[in-house]
């Protein structure tokens, strides 16, 4: 992210006030708590647009590049608006050799979307992620907090349909 001038006008002032209150409540070195602050910011705003990243950087006395580096490193942070169900396909080595690329391709095709973009119905955002440490379950797909292991391409439709309201979600 290129260092830009912070433009607060695009950010909801009421939500910024809540974020400020959270930052003020932190004890100790606030810069060390960047990840907590970003979690709180994402919880409040739904995602972390660049202006919000700059706001956090300014509030903590960090560079925008440092904050953006953290945001882009961790898959649980979203720079763009996301669907109700964030669907993550692990592309770590163990998952990849077990066909995660086919699982990802099928998921994107079924939802009619591209990686990192919201599905047309606004329900899903599909991401590829690094190893989540559940390699014994490869290939692994997560939908929000729910983990699906040993996923076969033929199961994707059934799994997604649970979240489309066609069947009860687990
Ligand atoms: S490689 Fe997918 S969980 Fe480890």
Report on the structure:
With about 170 residues, the chain is α+β, with helices and mostly antiparallel strands. It has two domains: about 10-75; about 85-165, Glutaredoxin, CATH 3.40.30. It has helices at about 15-25, 35-45, 50-60, 65-75, 95, 100-110, 155-165, and strands at about 85-90, 125-130, 140-145, 145-150. It has a four-stranded mixed sheet with strand order 2-1-3-4, with helices on one face. The protein is elongated. The structure holds FE2/S2 (inorganic) cluster. FE2/S2 (inorganic) cluster binds near residues 92, 93 and 94.
Structural class: alpha+beta
Overall tally of domains: 2
**SSE pattern:** HHHHEHHEEEH
For the sheet with most strands, the description reads: 4 strands, mixed
Strand line-up across the major sheet: 2-1-3-4
What percent of residues adopt helix (DSSP H or I)?
40-55%
CATH class of the largest domain: Alpha Beta
Q: What is the residue-averaged pLDDT?
A: 92
**Spatial shape:** elongated
Number of helical elements: 7
CATH-defined superfamily of the largest domain:
Glutaredoxin
Query: What hetero molecules are in the model?
Result: FE2/S2 (inorganic) cluster
CATH fold-level name of the largest domain: Glutaredoxin
Label the CATH architecture of the largest domain.
3-Layer(aba) Sandwich
Low-confidence stretches: none
Provide the β-strand percentage band. Answer: 5-15%
